[in-house]
Fold this protein.
Amino acid sequence: MLRNDASQRHVVHTDSVSWQPSPAPGVTRKRLERSGPKEAGRVTSIVCYAPGSAFHRHPHPDGEEILVLSGIFSDDRGDHPAGTMLLNPEGFSHAPGSAGGCTLFVKLRQYGGPGRPQAAIDTHTMPWQPHSTLPGISIKRLYCQPDRPEQIHLVRLAPGTTVGAVGFVGGVEVLVLSGDLSDGHGHYRTHTWIRDPTGTQHAPATQGGCTLYVKTGHLSR
């Protein structure tokens, strides 16, 4: 079931979701949320490129966000290995593919509006910065603009970390990249996707440690 209502808390354990075909041969996907037309709406997905698969050139109205989870993703700007974060603003077009295969976390039509930067961020070369107030937590800031409500971070919790109840103005979206996460509502394994609206309280904790993709501030629009 697609999770369209951003005013509600939703969780998807993507390892229990079946791969579905895309319009490109060899490219499959697990759609986590979608609104609008089937192949032209706002959507968040896990996307898998089989070796040698590719899309024809196409534009991205309202922009695109990509986090390469595994393998090497390629487009007009070059090869992007696992750990690369791509931010493509409105007006961007490309012909993406993968020679050896790859898996991506993709958000379409969620980076719109003028003045958005285009970026290809190698997150592996960025240093982890300790959180200013929460011990056991470190972050890598991937996106923040003063005139935009959303921020994107990688967040790492050390083994045994427990955090008191927190909430986020504008909501929060989390993809567990590795390890185990609990939040007072449930327990989440690798590649679980969680979306909490404004006002949701949760208490992050981990036994063995985890790394998370975290986007905040974007669910109040």
